[in-house]
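Entry 12.
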Amino acid sequence: MKLITLFLFSTLLASCASVKNHRVNSNFSDEHRPQIHFTPKKGWMNDPNGMVYHNGTYHLFFQHYPDGTKWGPMHWGHATSKDLVHWQEQKIALYPDSLGTIFSGSAVIDKNNTAGFGKNAMVAIFTHHNMEIEKTGSDKYQYQSLAYSLDDGKTWTKYNGNPVLPNPGIRDFRDPKVFWYEEGKKWIMTLATLDHITFYSSPDLKNWKEESKFGKTIGAHGGVWECPDLFQLTYNGEQHWVLIVNINPGGPNGGSATQYFVGDFDGKTFKPYQTDTRWLDYGPDEYAGVTWDNTGSRKLFIGWMSNWQYANEVPTESWRSAMTISRELGLNKIGNKYLVTSKPVQELKVLNQKEFKINTVSTPHFNLSEKAGALDGPVRLSITSNQIRSFTITLSNDLGEKVMIGFDARKNEYFIDRSASGKTGFEKGFAAKHVSPRFSLKNEMDLILVIDDASVELFADDGLSVMTSIFFPTKNYTNISINSNDGFVVKTLTYNTMNSIWK
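Predicted 3D structure (tokens):
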């Protein structure tokens, strides 16, 4: 046993010594490990689950397979944060049991003790996925169950009456998102049911009745509907309902994506104002995104930063997948259409370190790294312009690998091009250029790029156009430049280096 232990320890040391681009904390310094995004210490991660705020702490549960780096029997991992930025991974919250593995779901604070578990109990509502039933050919292998915690999520007890919502015979019957509907004094469950949404209500989280269905002939239907969310946002003092529906595949740039609808909800039926398809994030790498419960007037959102098209194949070793940065959602109106906006949470600024500012940058070429220093670790780049025109911001290394981010005025669209980003051969569709429409009608433009070791998140025009993209350079990018043959002029530029959240 001692020899085996010594061998394993020696192997670990050798592995650590070979890691490229060493970072601050050896536990989070392996190649491509994000420095400002949550990742599990080890193993597989996908959908965010059970997001709830309670007693000053943000809880992030997530789909987790701790024993491998590819999708496997699902558990609920658990992380907590005081500021939506620094995350502390906790012990696994929910393990598979005789009813099945633990698929996606939500969590609420039962302030009125409607379920009888205790006042202010934290209650998780999740999908049990029974693989043994699935093997029989029956469609009834997914159903909804409860677990509760009386110590702020530290320990969990599964309800002995599970499942609370049996499967009526729908193959994909999962991902319950629950909230308290004060006007009707009842809980509302938004559930993904194959190719549409079914709404249920309950007085006590245990007994559910169907209220209505939505979406069978509306929206994008290139894949199965998953991970829904229903909540309110305010525009000009008026509240409107937003329904998020994640879809895989069928996104605007292929693979997984998050669509949404804006409309009315009366406690029974959701009615959209318009039925055209809209996307919360046009990049290839935001999926399964939902909001935190119990956050008051703020609607805070996070998504899985990957795509089922290649999630199992990306070139990481001890861990796989990250979450996006936390975002705050809002509502804007362009013409007669309500559009959901998405911006980095203000708390992210706590990571700002060295700042470089400059006014009136003229192109055709501006090497930012020559002025602000080589790119080394995460940064936040913010620019404004009085007149939007075509431009490209290029991240590159000395191997010629690059990611190009910018705007094409002729097509009126933002883009992220990772065709030559580095390691792309693990999946045939990864090396590609992805685009997002520009929705703003203004001449002025503002743009925020949040850049990490292996990702970029783009927020343009006050969050109207959003894109998320991951990449895997052979060596980290060290140079940033801004280029334009169209006379693009930067009014203001602010460049912040950022501290690692793992310090």
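Annotation: The first strand starts at residue 43 and ends at 54. Confidence is low (pLDDT under 50) at residues 1-26.
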